[in-house]
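Hi, here's the filled form for the chain we discussed.

Project: internal
Contact: R.S.
Residues: 97
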Amino acid sequence: MGKEPKPADGHAEAHATPLTAPIPTNTPPALVITAGRDPLRDEGVEYADLLLARGIECHHEMFHDEMHGFVCSEGDTSAHRQAMAVIANWTQSLTSP
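And the returned structure, exactly as it came back:
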């Protein structure tokens, strides 16, 4: 069996990050939400850019003042409500003519 590719950034598992996983040509549109104070922020931005570079429709929304998990772990905050509105509007845009 072949050896799994090892990401350049040192992740032990090739599929631990979507940056190193294969991206099928029929990948559906994506919504990527990143938080400015998230240690994974740069990877999220890079992933959104990678999808766009591969011709995959992608909407990226950055919440500059938020931390990792803010959408579901900080309760009913202003940023949570804004993110939920982004998700709802983006989802609705997929089904609108």
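Let me know if anything looks off before we file it.
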